Amino acid sequence: MALCLARNFCNRATIFNPAQLSSARYVSIKVVPATQPAVEGHDARNARFKRPQSPHLTIYKPQLTSMLSITHRGTGILLSSYVIAAGIAGISGDFSVVSSIEALQLGAASLAALKFSIAFPFSYHLVNGIRHLFWDMGKFLSIKEVYTTGYAMLFASIVLSLALTFLF
Fold it and tell me: Where are the membrane-spanning stretches (predicted)?
């Protein structure tokens, strides 16, 4: 039926004969104003449908791989904040980090803790970045190797942090 109508409509005689076009069926459209959807939050909608609340991260046991990944991101943010603070201090004019730390008159233990808090994010991010480069080369990707390199990376970053802490 539709093919017949399309063939008749596309016929040359139909195109050039307006009388045949006027015999077409008329369609009217009724305008209905749109209704506003109810503003309902995600939690309220789930309560209305009696859906249980998702436990999210509380049901998962923390794993070494996820914790190392989160820590890698955190150390990257911390290193960025160190660079931003150093840049602001450099722009501010005549500012010396060494003279500012000496003015605090910290004890040996406090100074070592301060040095370690600066050295650990750097060494962790560095060693874990090297680990990621090995992964990009397709090495150490089995579960056993991922965990082994994870523990080795933690050990190496702590040793490097301690070496940087007691260097000066």
Answer: 77-98, 104-127, 148-167
